[in-house]
Design a protein that fits this description.
By secondary structure, the protein is mainly alpha-helical. It is built from 15 helices and 3 strands.
Amino acid sequence: MKRKEEKEIVFYEISDFKYYLQNEKRSSKNTIDAYLNDINFYAEFLKKYQGVFDVQDIEREHIEKYVLSLKRKELSKQTIARKVIAVKEFHKFLYTENITRDNPASLIETPKADKPLPVVLTKDEVNTMLQAINGTKATDIRNRAMLETMYAAGLRITELLDLKLSNLHLREKYMIIIGKGDKERMVPLGEMAIVSLRKYIETAREELIKEPTDLLFFNYKGDKMSRQGFYKFIANLAKDCGITKEISPHTIRHSFATHLLEGGVDLRIVQEILGHEDISTTQIYTHIDKSKLKEMYDHTHPLAKKEE
């Protein structure tokens, strides 16, 4: 009986792991909840199928069998990867805190999860949305300038909303963007975006502004535009244009990058414009449609067509 009671209280280290995530790693509540759910699931597997009741007894083969069991359940690659990452983090914690003598998960490979391709608008869909913003009210002129600027420069929503007049160099056709980690980058601007920005600054901004400030865009109350406000505008505009894709402000950034690559712009240049530190982040946009790729090949390769 005593043996069974001992087995019921094993893996008490999970509570220590929770404390570590909360107070040392400062992880979000969602991350902590996900990790704990995954580790409890892992612990139950070890107890039920491997007869392991103490973290000291866990060996690499136990973890490998656990990973194999996840694959047999036909879970998605993303789910399996998340559960394996949780296990690796748990064992790393146990080893770092000298709770275990070694780390049996150190050589366990994390299954690669397939990254879902981003939703992308076609060039025609973008043009349809832009042409639909044809009102003369200050908010209409602002909306056109914001969408033109976001699409012309591939901005993140935060970068767009934080834009200041002093960031713009319209005569030189570029602007300075303050991206993640307060890193600056210079982004070129096309003629249509420049025209829309000038029109907004000269005819609408003063009507919306409440007090002197360098900030560029405002809502109808004269306050800084919110993420939610612009998100709602983009979603409603797409719906009004008959676009059934689920889009967000980030869809405009995805579309910008995809259209550049479709046009033959080098991946490294797109990386620089988007402000990605790692080019692997930019490579998700290389999902050019096969028919488009074939069209580009036929148009550019000297041996693509038969000589007449």
